[in-house]
């Protein structure tokens, strides 16, 4: 499991687990830090995908199915132990959704809450019509990266760092741009779903995510653009909200 999951703070006594999925090109460290911040009732598992961090020599995932199969293959025994929630930003929102869908279909399990950030629902018109970024030349790709913010300018201007960073980002975008799923006829989840987004990001069809659950559906907007969650003030507000929701679900579960 240690190959696929980064966990800074093991908490055997935790009441629930928060499983976090990275944004495109992202690693596991940003979320793994949350394990040091959140209270002792929550254990944080940050997913580490192939082709980055300690898995840098591995080939990138070619499609969403590979990611889902690996994550569920590793996590299934652990997820059966106690309630769990899923969190994903951008590309991570799609992987969270795909994992939740597979867990329900194949194992009749669902999270106590799913948190989806910075992304339109995969079956929404906005998302289906979105331009394919992974096919841009490196130069145009970098212009686009600069426009959405969140990547330090010194990183974008360093050719050596870019050589390491761009392949992972383009590989993840290739996965998400080729991921297809139909709008559910009926909600397949009954747990609460919360969508987060930055007020200055390009508009996302957050409302379309409501189709996946018969449970509570909430949208929360934050100041900032695509990477609003990297702002320390926003991160605190977001984690306070996540904690409160998981504590509420713990009460329901008991």
From TrEMBL:
PANTHER family: S-ACYL FATTY ACID SYNTHASE THIOESTERASE, MEDIUM CHAIN, THIOESTERASE
Originating species: Xyrichtys novacula
Entry's family note: Belongs to the thioesterase family.
Main enzyme class: hydrolase
Record domain Thioesterase: where: 17-231
Catalytic activities: (9Z)-octadecenoyl-[ACP] + H2O = (9Z)-octadecenoate + holo-[ACP] + H(+)
Presence of keyword Lipid metabolism: yes
BP GO terms, sorted: medium-chain fatty acid biosynthetic process
EC number from the UniProt entry: 3.1.2.14
Keyword Lipid biosynthesis in record: yes
Name of the protein in question: S-acyl fatty acid synthase thioesterase, medium chain
Keywords: Fatty acid biosynthesis, Fatty acid metabolism, Hydrolase, Lipid biosynthesis, Lipid metabolism
Entry superkingdom: Eukaryota
An example Gene Ontology molecular-function term: fatty acyl-[ACP] hydrolase activity
């Amino acid at each position: 499991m240690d190959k696929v999951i980064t966990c800074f703070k093991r908490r055997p006594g935790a009441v629930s687990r928060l499983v976090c999925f990275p944004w495109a090109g992202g690693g596991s460290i940003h979320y793994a830090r949350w394990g040091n911040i959140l209270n002792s009732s929550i254990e944080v598992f940050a997913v580490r995908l192939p082709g980055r961090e300690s898995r840098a020599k591995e080939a990138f995932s070619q499609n969403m199915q590979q990611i889902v199969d690996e994550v569920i293959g590793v996590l299934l025994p652990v997820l059966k132990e106690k309630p769990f929630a899923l969190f994903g930003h951008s590309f991570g929102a799609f992987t969270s959704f795909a994992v939740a869908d597979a867990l329900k279909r194949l194992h009749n399990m669902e999270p106590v809450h799913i948190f989806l950030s910075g992304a339109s629902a995969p079956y929404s018109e906005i998302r289906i019509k979105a331009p394919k970024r992974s096919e841009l030349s490196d130069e145009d790709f970098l212009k686009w990266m600069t426009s959405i913010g969140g990547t330090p300018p010194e990183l974008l201007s360093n050719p050596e760092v870019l050589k390491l960073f761009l392949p992972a980002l383009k590989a993840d975008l290739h996965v998400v741009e080729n991921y297809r799923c139909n709008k559910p006829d009926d909600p397949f989840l009954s747990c609460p779903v919360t969508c987060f987004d930055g007020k200055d990001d390009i508009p996302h069809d957050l409302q379309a995510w409501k189709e996946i659950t018969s449970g509570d559906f909430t949208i929360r907007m934050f100041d900032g653009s695509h990477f609003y969650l990297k702002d320390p003030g926003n991160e605190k507000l977001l984690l306070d909200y996540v904690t409160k929701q998981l504590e509420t679900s713990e009460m329901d579960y008991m």
